Amino acid sequence: xxxxxxxxxxxxxxxxxxxxxxxxxxxxxxxxxxxxxxxxxxxxxxxxxxxxxxxxxxxxxxxxxxxxxxxxxxxxxxxxxxxxxxxxxxxxxxxxxxxxxxxxxxxxxxxxxxxxxxxxxxxxxxxxxxxxxxxxxxxxxxxxxxxxxxxxxxxxxxxxxxxxxxxxxxxxxxxxxxxxxxxxxxxxxxxxxxxxxxxxxxxxxxxxxxxxxxxxxxxxxxxxxxxxxxxxxxxxxxxxxxxxxxxxxxxxxxxxxx
Length: 258
Hints:
It contains ten helices and seven strands. The chain is of the alpha/beta class. It has a seven-stranded mixed sheet.
């Protein structure tokens, strides 16, 4: 096997999939990297956004929980920027600053999204390059499970939020470490305004979105990585899908106030 692929295979599967997408997605078909959400009140979308409706609806769930218009927002872990583009265009914050640790992802976002109130910057979630009290809202979508020190991340989010600012937070954990996350979150000064277990909504979105995801993997992933990529993408009947179905993976949604 080529040394380049040996090196890639040593990385966690989420890094492998990010590498595949950045290398192979020439038509910019993949703007979201989350598992999606199916709710009772789906948003009306422009035709160009319809293709990735279910991953987009996860962002809509968070953005609809507050009034974002004319506010200063920070997204930590923006990935390929589909969510930052959606919120900037539909919810009209005054400024939306999106960061990600991946230089490739930020390069893609700067090229793909030319939106006046939107800025993308390479930065570390655990060392945010912003002043205290800088933002009205911080949003974090299915990214924090990759962070080495979740307590430091929570500390940084609290620091950069203005007094009364709100943290819109969604991610997943397995039953072996969900209590650890709750413990670290309870150690913060945040006030919990809302908590919801949305695992079933995520599983239902994966069910409906499975064919699109499988088609993407078939087009983009090298054959020797196809099975791993389908599992990571949550294709119906994959290991990941069954972990959501069984409840071993718990997907949560918080609204937290400073």
